[in-house]
Amino acid sequence: MTLAIATFLISAAALALELVLVRALSIGHWHHFSYLVISTALLGFGAGAALVTVAAKPLTKHCIHALWLFAFAFAAAAPLVFWTAQKVSFDELQLIWDRRQILYLTACYLLFFAPFFCAGAFVALAFAAFGQKAHRLYFYNMAGSGLGAVALVALMYAARPESLILLTSLIAFLSAATAARAISLRRLALTAAAAAICLWAFSTHGLLPLQINISQQKSLLYYKNLPQAKTLARRYSPLARLDCIQAPAIRYFPGLSFAYRGKLPRQMLIISDADAVSAVNKFDHLTELSCYDHTTSALPYHLLSDPHVCIIGAGGGSDLCQALALGARSITAVEMNSQIVDLVADDFNDFASGLYRRNNVQVVIAEGRNFLETTPHRFDIINISLLDSFSASAAGLYALNESHLYTIEAVGRAISRLKPSGLLSITRVLKTPARDSLKILATVADALRSQAGQTADISRHIIMIRSWATATIVASPQPLAAEQIQNARSFAAHRSFDLIHTPAITLDQTNKFHILDEGPVYYRYAQQILSDNHEEFYDTYAYKIRPATDDRPYFFDFFKWRSLPHMIRTLGHNWLIFSEWGYLVLVATLLQAVAASVLLILLPLRIARPLRKTHTAKAAVLLYFLLLGLAYMFLEMGFIQKMTLLIGHPVYGVAVTLLAFLLFSGLGSLAAELILPRLAPLSLCSHRLIWAAAAAVTLAAAFEIALTTLRFDWLLSFSRPARLILAVAIAALPAFFMGMPMPTALKHLHLSARPLVPWAWGVNGCASVTGAVLGTILAISLGFTTLALIALTCYILAALLAKSVCSPPTPAHSAGKM
Which domains does the chain have, with CATH numbers? Predict the structure, then answer.
C-alpha cells in the first residue's frame, strides 16, 4: 500500500506540475515557448528511466530509500527550478539577433528537466522493482495523473500558478513522506521539516517568493509603465490571467481612422495572459462613443438599421459600445471567460456605465463556436472582432493554437444563424506580407460556396475594407443590395478606409488612402480568392491561406516549406520575422525530442551490462513500446479535439478527456490483472490479451470517430451536462482497453527479462513526448481523423509484435535476471 500511495501522489504531482508550468510560461512568454520547453523537459521521464536501467541493481537493492530520494528531490526541485528560471533573461523574440538567447534557452531546458527526471526515475524504479504488480502500479500511475490533472485545472480558478507550483511540491513531499514512513521516523521528520522550510521559503512572504517574470515584448509591461498606471484587479483561471490596468494615457482603439478628430472616452484595460487587450469604456452618453463609428468594424451598422446583434467575444465591451452607439436594438453578448464579465458587470460596473446590465443587453457565458451551434435564435448582425493579441499575432506565435471559431464549418454555422438579409462581420489584424485577412476571406468564401453551391457568384455577397491596421469582411447569405454597396463605399470614403472588395469593384477604386508600395495587392488577391481559380491561388501563394476545417482547425498556421528558400534569399537575416515562428518552433521541438529520445533509448543499451546480456528480442520490445506511446498520445489528442467541440469549452474538453483516458486506462489495467490468472500459459494469454485489447480499441475508437463525425449535430442537441456525460462515455470505452497492452507486457518482461522493464518504460515515455509534438504536426498537415487512424494502425502493429515481446522465458532469458 505504501508503494501504491507514493506512486499515486508522485504521478499526480508530475502531471499537475506539467500543466501549471504550461500555464505559467504562457503568461510570462507565449504558448509556443511553453510547448517548446515543457515538451523537451518531459524527456526527463525517459532520462529517469535510463538511469534506473543503468543502475538497476543498486537502486532495486535499496528501493524504498531510492524512491524516497527521487520523490524528495522532485518536491524540492519544483519550486527551486521555477524560481531560478524566472531569473534567466530569455526573450524568444531576440533569438534572431542575440545568440546569447540560445544559452538562456538551454538553461531553461535543463532547469525544467530536473523535476521530471526525478518523477521518471521514481515510476521506472517502481516498475523495475515490483514488476509483478505492474497492472496495479499502472492503475495508480494513471489514476494519479488523471485526478491530479483535473484537480489542478479546478484549482486554477482559485489560485495563482505560483501557489499551484508550491502545491505540486507539497504533493511530492507527501509521496516522499509515505516512503520515509516505511524507512524510519527520523527520515519522516526530516521530510516534514524540509517540506515546511521549502514551502515557507518560496511562499509570498518567504526569502525566495515565486513570481512570473513577464517578457518585455508583452503588452502588459507597456501599459503598466504608463504614467500613473494602476493595477486595479487580477484574476486567474485555466483560460487566462486577467490584469485590469488603468492610466490616464490609455487609448486603445485598433484601426481608428486617421480622419477622426473627435474626443476619445476614458478607458481601462483587461489584459489576458499579459498580452491580449480588451478595453472597458467610461461614458455618460452614447454620443461620447462616436469614435467607434470610425473603425472598420462599424461597417455593418451602416448597411442595416435597428439590428439585433450577436457579439462573439464580448470581452470588456468595446464591441457592445460600438453596437449601442450605432443603433443596435438588442445585443446578445457572448463571452467564454466568466471572470471578464464579472469584472465588467460587478467590480467595475460604475466605470463601465452599467454596460452589461442594460435592458437591451443579454450576456451569455459560452464559447463562441458552441453558442453558434446550439442557439435557436437568428440575428441581423453577428460580429467577431479582434479576438487575439496584436503582438503575438504579428509575430506568428499562434500557429500551434487550435481555433474552432475560424473554420469553414464555424463560419458556415454563423451564416446559417443570420436572418435572410443578415450580415456576418469579421475583423482581423493586417499582417505584412498579407496572409491573416486573406485566409479569413478565403474561409468566408468557401463557407458561402458550401451553402450556395460551388458555381454561385459569391462575390456579390461580400464586402471587404481595410484601415492602416485592420481589415473587416462583411458577408451576407444573399446578394447585397445596390444601396448597401453604395453605403459601404460612402462609409469607407468618408473615413479614409480603402476598399478591397465590393460587388462590381474596379481597380481605380482601391489603394487610395493607405497606399501600399506594391500597389493594390489586397484587391488582386481578393479577386483571386473569389474567382473560380481560388484553389490554384491557394496552392501558389507564399503563405498557407487555404481555409481551416474542423478536422484541421489551425487557422493561424500560415507556414509553407516551399516558400522558405525564397524568404531566406530575399529577406536575408530578417527571414525569421516573416516565417511564422510557431510552426518552426514545433519542428525544432520535434527534432530535439527525437534526438534526445534516440540518445536516451540507445545509451542504456551500450552501457547497461544486464541489458546487454538479456537475450529477449530488444528490437521487438523497442518497437512495441514505441508504438504504444505514439498510439496512446495520437488517439488522446484526437479525442481531446473532438470532445472540446462536443462540450463547447476548451478547459472542460481537455479536463474531461484527460480524466476519462487516464482513469479508465488504469481501470483497464486492473481488469487485465483479473483476467490473466484465469488464462494459461502466461506467454500465450498475454499476447492474446494484447491482441484482444488492440482489436477492442480499434473497433471502439473507429465507431466513436464515425459517431462524432457523422452524427455530431445530434450529439450537440443534448444539454451541456448530458454532453459532459457523453464525452466521458465516448472517451472511456477505448481508454479502458488502451490500459491493457502496456502493463501486461511489462509484467511479462519482469518475469522473463527483468532488466528490460525500466528501459521499456523509458521508451514508452520518450515516445509519448515525441508523439505529442509529432501528433501536432500530423494534425496540422493531415487532420485529426487521419491522426486517429494512424494511432489505430500503431495499435495493430504493436499487437503483431506482442508475441515476440511476450515470448516464454528461457534459460538464456533467466541469465539476464538480476
Answer: 1-214 (1.20.1250), 270-556 (3.40.50.150), 587-818 (1.20.1250)
